[in-house]
Write a structure and sequence with these properties.
The complex is a heterodimer of chains A (about 200) and B (about 325). Chain A contains ten helices and no strands. With about 200 residues, chain A is mainly alpha-helical. Chain B is of the alpha+beta class and about 325 residues long. In chain B, about 35% of the residues lie in helices and about 15% in strands. Chain B has four helices and nine strands. Classes of the chains: A mainly alpha (about 200), B alpha+beta (about 325).
Chain lengths: ~200, ~325
């Protein structure tokens, strides 16, 4: 007589998926559970859309990028490696790379550097709850630490992150020696990591 | 290496494709960049996505029409049959057939990621003893204690062996020191005796009434030999000093003879000569009436009377001072 799996033998329970961690939700996504993807979408899409809009200078293509990212997550969830990064970071980097791809392929109007500093015009209505509080605190902390960066370090970070420029391209753009760009980038990254250590731990 | 890893991400590469390069520094810095980059967008004001975007997304992944309602933010968690799979709306990303909602009961443990892929680390093999954890714990503890005791015993044995070697070495050095001390004492005694003899000889030789009997070679036997017999004023103490004698051959000895006024020669003793060494002999007794001395070469053991060839002969007593 085959042995009964005690876990599978349990009757299905109704739980609030909003309470599940990103990592657990990703496992359900691997098992092709759309509800899990819906929770991830609701949780991260405001940040990811803001990122896509920032990179694409507010272009409507940002919505397409967001959809593209989550379709990729749905089809390639197994590629996510929790040992490398958090789900949140994985989603951010997917969004960034796809938005920069669109930017480079000329699918949007080229923006100016000044335009990139415009605030996102659409505010997100945050959901209530402890997660929302943590998220708001995280945003405030990141904003504060980014604002605390010396302008020259912040500049290289923005050019690298939001415009997808390589360090050589940043050097050419800013008329700085490549070594200076590398040093400023590294200093900024180390400073941010040191200041945002708690936030990084939360993500992991 | 650092920038290569980072630029790979900046070029828009899939972050999961940022393979470690075996360089710890590059890997560490790449991780630093990934961690920080994951936070940077949180500085932006969040943007509420268009509800249609979500509808289109879930229509795509579930294969429904775009007009179909998207799953709610917190969907009811109950199993549902997999729907049919009409053509997806995103051509590049073809979704696989899926269940529309998920069942939370078989939630896998958070520490064991269920995602399997080409880049995932292989699962660790589970030892057979994993189901008997307490027993294996005790066994491991006992084994650790045994190993610790064995190690301690070995260490103590080595320490003891080292101490034994040290004690033996110290004892050996003490014995050697004692031997050297005894040797030094002997040397000291010998030097004292020599000094005493030299002093006696010097006293004898330099005494105002001392007599000297020069010894000269006889014939051509040993033409380089020279010597002198010093006789104290009491005519008892004497000292013989000879140089240039050929080394004694095997079975032969030199012999000193005192030549009195009357009667036969008196044996003064035998001696050997060594290369480049002066012969020195002394005594406190000498026959009365001695006027001269003779050195002959005799058979080993000496002779009662001179039998061998004369090597040196005294030329008569001379009062030096």
């Amino acid at each position: 007589m085959p042995e009964t799996d005690p876990v599978k033998a349990q009757p299905p329970e109704r739980v609030d998926p909003g309470t599940l961690s990103d990592a657990v939700l990703m496992r359900y996504v691997v098992e092709r559970r759309p509800g899990a993807l819906a929770v991830l979408y609701d949780r991260h899409s405001p940040t990811l859309l803001a990122l896509a809009r920032r990179i694409l200078s507010g272009s409507p293509d940002a919505g397409d990028v967001l959809q593209e990212v989550f379709v990729h997550v749905w089809n390639h969830a197994a590629r996510y490696d929790p040992a490398r990064s958090s789900v949140s970071t994985w989603l951010v980097l997917l969004t960034r790379s796809r938005a920069i791809d669109r930017l480079r392929h000329g699918k949007v109007v080229e923006r100016t550097h000044e335009a990139s500093h415009l605030a996102n015009p659409v505010d997100h209505a945050s959901p209530e709850g402890a997660d929302a509080v943590f998220l708001r605190e995280r945003r405030e902390r990141v904003r504060r630490e980014m604002a605390n960066l010396p302008p020259e370090q912040r500049q290289v970070i923005e050019l690298a992150f939001y415009e997808g420029l390589t360090q050589s391209e940043i050097a050419a753009r800013t008329d700085l020696p490549l070594g200076t760009v590398k040093t400023r980038t590294l200093l900024a990254m180390k400073k941010l990591r040191s200041a945002l250590r708690a936030e990084i731990r939360q993500l992991l | 290496m650092i920038n290569a890893a980072v630029e790979a991400l900046e070029r828009g590469a899939d972050p999961s494709a940022a393979e470690p390069r075996g360089d710890e520094t590059a890997e560490t810095l790449a991780r630093l960049y990934i961690e920080v980059m994951g936070l940077i967008p949180y500085e932006l004001t969040p943007a509420e996505p268009d509800p249609e975007t979500k509808q289109r997304l879930f229509a795509t992944i579930t294969g429904r029409a775009a007009a179909a309602p998207a799953p709610p933010p917190a969907p009811a968690l109950a199993p549902q049959a997999a729907p049919a799979a009409p053509p997806p709306q995103v051509p590049a990303e073809t979704p696989a057939p899926a269940e529309p909602i998920f069942v939370p009961a078989p939630v896998p443990a958070p520490a064991e990621p269920p995602v399997s892929g080409a880049r995932r680390m292989p699962p660790r093999p589970v030892p057979l003893s994993a189901t008997r954890r307490p027993v294996s714990w005790l066994g491991a503890l006992a084994a650790a204690l045994i190993f610790a005791l064995l190690g301690l015993s070995g260490w103590l044995y080595l320490q003891q062996a080292g101490q034994r070697e040290t004690v033996a070495r110290l004892e050996r050095e003490a014995r050697e020191a004692k031997q050297k001390e005894a040797q030094a004492r002997l040397e000291s005694e010998r030097f004292k005796n020599e000094y005493s003899q030299l002093r006696t000889t010097m006293t004898l030789v330099t005494a105002p009434a001392a007599l000297v009997n020069p010894l000269r070679p006889v014939g051509r036997l040993q033409p380089d030999a020279r010597g002198a017999l010093f006789v104290a004023a009491d005519h008892q103490h004497w000292h013989l000093s000879i140089e240039g004698l050929k080394p004694s051959t095997r079975g032969k000895v030199y012999q000193l003879w005192f030549m009195p006024d009357q009667g036969p020669p008196v044996n003064g003793g035998t001696f050997l000569a060594k290369p480049d060494e002066r012969v020195e002999m002394s005594s406190e007794a000498m026959p009365a009436g001695t006027r001269s001395a003779v050195i002959t070469l005799e058979e080993a053991g000496g002779a009662r009377l001179p039998t061998g060839p004369e090597v040196l002969r005294g030329a008569g007593m001379i009062q030096v001072l």
